[in-house]
Amino acid sequence: MVSRIPTHHAPAPTHPVPTGRGSDPAPAGAAAASPRPVVKRTARAIVLDGDQLVLIKRTKPGEAPYWITPGGGVEPEDAGVVAALHREVAEELGGSVAGVVPAFVDTVPHVTEDGRDGVKVQHFFVCRLVSMDPARRHGPEVEDPNGEYEIVRLPFTPEALRSVNVVPGRLREYLAGNVEGVRALLAPDLA
Question: What is stated as this protein's family in its record (predicted)?
Answer without folding.
Answer: Belongs to the Nudix hydrolase family.
